[in-house]
């Protein structure tokens, strides 16, 4: 919480007569001084106790495995000092399905984390060393999983990760969900990753249609007269609700047989045609 953003301000007097104006100004200063002292006390209390709150959250509400994951985060001693941000990070980890974990993606993220690590301004050197070595162990475990000739596949995965996620998030989710079903559509070369991204972006830029989110084709109309607008509202193809899209659906990892509108997903897959740009289906 940024207490500077909610600091009190000194109100200007509204009276026009000189004596009344001075009296009002004096009262405003007294009120301002009292509010400022209160804000400073709250800020100091928050800074003094946020580490304790953070520790209590981790001790009471997370497993040892989650504790290790959190301490491996590059911003563990900065952003995650804020209990609210800590809870958000815990929620994100809890929603991530282990079945959807892709080794190359985990490898890329592990590299990012260890490169971004910094010792906290008040962090003990021994504690920082232990945190660094824990993250190094994660990276080593991922190294040990790989065979030779994986560098290009790692680059392809990294290329997907650093592209504009505001446009590529649906594609990344599609790859993740499909990987849960033991079908690997992740590209293994940078050129195939580029092809996949280009086709995906062409799909989402197609005017008047959004197959991924479940919009129908626009009514082009025939003959003269105004075409009838019978387009449906965008809806999540997993649960059918219109208040969110499929990438944010809490049920997005359910089996496809339980989806509300699986036809829209099939249409999107046909349009994207993933299997022609680097898919490998296990046999």
Automatic annotation (TrEMBL):
Can you give the residue ranges of the CCHC-type domain? 236-251
InterPro entries recorded for this chain? Answer: Znf_CCHC, Znf_CCHC_sf
Molecular function (GO) terms listed?
A: nucleic acid binding; zinc ion binding
Looking up SUPFAM superfamilies in the UniProt record yields: Retrovirus zinc finger-like domains
Sequence segments annotated as region (Disordered): 211-230
Highest taxon listed in the record's lineage: Eukaryota
Protein name (record) = CCHC-type domain-containing protein
Protein's organism: Cylindrotheca closterium
